[in-house]
Amino acid sequence: MRPDTEDFSTLFLSDTPLLDVRAPMEFAQGSFPGAINIPLMDDDERHRVGICYKEKGQEAAIQLGHQLVSGSIKSGRVAKWTEFAQAHPNGYLYCFRGGLRSRISQQWLAEAGIQYPRITGGYKAMRSFLLDSLERQIAESSFILIAGFTGCGKTQVVFDLASAIDLEKLANHRGSSFGKHASDQPTQIDFENRLAIALLKLHAQNKNRIALEDESRLIGRCALPLSMRHAMQHSPVVWVEESTESRVERILSDYVEDLGGQFRSKYGEELGFEAFSNRLLESLQNLYKRLGGERHARLSSLMIRALQEQKASGKLDLHRDWIRPLLIEYYDPMYEHQRESKASRIVFSGDRNAVTQYLKQTGY
């Protein structure tokens, strides 16, 4: 049998399959990339055992737990663990502290003929390890920021580099008022865990000069660590220059074609289009105060007309009529101000390909 482990670094660097036996509520609050939740106790069972523990002590709580998870319930959960263990023979299981629940799960698996190791210290120890490594690696990293007007292809530059982290991918959000995807963002804990692992992997390859897309403190609802935000505020900047028309086309592709496809995949053709339309209109509505009533009404009218045309014929052409003025009248002045404020830190500017080549040649 493979021994239990507390080598957290290797677990995360090798994307080790993880079997999380905590309750679903615990898993939803924070987990690790690729971890699968097959709980020993569901939320209600855990709640009842917790009350028993407080009122009658550990022995009574353990006895109640065995009563609640017995017979067909127990055999069903063991069967799911067995399926996971057989599919992932190099994996590990864990509970919150690496204590009673993971030991019971391990014992029940052994009784079913499967020796499966657990993670010493459980979720709590792994989370502490990632938080500590996150702060240490931020301090040991040298960042360069990829900036530019909305739609200039900053994310594509990040994708094309060997030493870069896609913060928007980790946050599952494109970073703007229109940046929500059809799927939900991770919790703050999950975002921090993902970021810590991404840094851990780069540093393991001796890559501590790291390119990042220039982001504000919040990417949707996910907040950058204060230490990273502080480091970014003092990092050099490269500026991506692209024509207005190429940016219009990229926005059309990302925020209309791709986003619409996400909603259709999630809800089906008709409901998906309705949800997509509502999302676009809601995103524009969120800018009402900044746009002002007259400009919001004008852009909203153009957006509604474009959505009606798309629904009737599938054509996307009219979407350019609201995208173009939104860029020119709203986003561009805001980013122009940002460029002026960062002028002393800009070390290179050029189109997307030129910026990508510059960064590759300088070690990113």
Descriptive report:
The chain has 364 residues and is an alpha/beta fold. It folds into 2 domains: 121 residues, Oxidized Rhodanese, domain 1; 224 residues, 3-Layer(aba) Sandwich (Rossmann fold), CATH 3.40.50. Helix content is 60%, strand content 10%. The chain has 17 helices and 10 strands. The strands form 3 sheets. A 5-stranded parallel sheet has the order 5-6-4-9-10, sandwiched between helices. A 3-stranded parallel sheet has the order 2-1-3, covered by helices on one side. The chain has a two-stranded antiparallel ribbon with strand order 7-8. Strand 1, helix 2 and strand 2 form a beta-alpha-beta unit. The longest helix is centred in the C-terminal third of the chain and has 24 residues. It is globular, with a radius of gyration of 25 Å. 32% of the residues are buried. Belongs to the SelU family. This is tRNA 2-selenouridine synthase. InterPro entries: AAA_SelU (IPR058840), P-loop_NTPase (IPR027417), Rhodanese-like_dom (IPR001763), Rhodanese-like_dom_sf (IPR036873), SelU (IPR017582).
Give short descriptive properties of this protein.
alpha/beta, selenium, 364 residues, Rossmann fold, tRNA 2-selenouridine synthase activity, 3-stranded parallel β-sheet, Rhodanese-like_dom_sf, tRNA 2-selenouridine synthase, Oxidized Rhodanese, domain 1, Rhodanese-like_dom
Give a nutshell description of this structure:
Its EC number is 2.9.1.3. The chain has 17 helices and 10 strands.
Helix/strand layout:
Elements: H1 8-13, E1 18-20, H2 24-29, E2 36-37, H3 43-56, H4 58-68, H5 71-87, E3 92-94, H6 100-111, H7 122-140, E4 142-148, H8 154-159, E5 164-165, H9 167-171, H10 188-204, E6 209-213, E7 218-219, E8 222-223, H11 226-232, E9 237-240, H12 244-267, H13 269-285, H14 288-291, H15 293-313, H16 320-341, E10 346-350, H17 352-361
